[in-house]
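User: Okay, second chain of the day. Same drill as before: sequence in, structure tokens out.
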Amino acid sequence: MTPIPLSFSATHRTLRYTAAGLAAISLLITAACEKPKAAAPAVPVVDVVTVAQRDVPIYMEWIGSLDGNINAVIRPQVTGYLIKQNYREGDLVKQGQPLFEIDPRTFEAAVDEAKGLRAQQAARYETTRANLARIKPLAAMNAVSQKDLDDTTGADLSAKASLEAADASLRTAKLNLAFTKITSPVTGIAGIAKAQIGDLLSPSMPTELTTVSTVDPIKVYFNISEREYLKVAGERTDTSKQVPLELFLVDGSLYPHPGKFFVLNRQVDASTGTFKVAALFPNPQSLLRPGQYGKVRATMAVEKGALLVPQRAVTEIQGKYLVAVVGADNKADIRPVTIGERIGSDWIISKGLQPGDQVIAEGTQKVRTGMTVSPKPFAADAPAAATPAKPGDKPAAPAPASKG
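Assistant: Same drill. Structure tokens below.
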């Protein structure tokens, strides 16, 4: 066998490597020139909720402050030193029950003095009346002059007037003595005393001794706007029918006793533009005290068969309200709706939806009319406390809707 020359073998290997490199370059150029295929768009996943239908009470709510039905401010009516406190602070006291006592000795002396002056004037009056009784027959017989009769008559009238003045002074002294025992004018809860034993009291002192409040029933004051007033006044044509009231305490609990409207102030407060309203709530166990706060709820009406959707499902665009509805074919449809009252975290939809419609509650901003979506059930947050039903309120956070 004839051996292959070394130069020929090297040349052959070089050509083989060159051909392989050109083939690889050709494959790269071909792959680079091919256009990549576009990936299919992902179907958006949205959270949907079924339109609920039920009877819904329409509420109006206000923040109210509690106060006693009667708040009797106890003040001293005479000047003297406080020597005794006859009640326990915070307890129920009866009408006429003694609360405080002022040192009575000065006033007892004044009564004794007034009695002496009254006795003196009574004796003088008895003398003048006897003189007049003696002189009248003599005057009738012209045994004394007319001047003597006039002087005697005048002295009698003067003595009578002095006796009446002495009687008034005695009554005043006795009244001042009675004022040394300070009693409660009403039955109610007595507050903490603002004076201590030994303090010098007087009618001109800047602070009261205490306050006694009647708390059964207890008043709840709250303010309503002119708009709310006109709505209530327009709807409540039967003034004899009371609007039921509920009271929610600061811990969120519902007070078990319903209340009723008591009084509407005669005018609007110019500084706030609201009417002041008072309601009365029974308070048999004295649970409620003046100064507490609560939320007053009035049930104005019950809307039968109302359609409800979450507030977040409603979008506002230039004063129009829209919702996205998913059909049976999983295609989205943007519909205009008419909203009604706001009930808690839901809206009443007056027009534009039907019971059983699937409304997008989350993901509205990702869809447009005719788009296919992948619906999944909406997981609602924990229900919040119901808020006042106020027509015309707008959605809390409108999301921009796509136009299709």
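The first strand starts at residue 45 and ends at 50.

User: Thanks, on to the next one.
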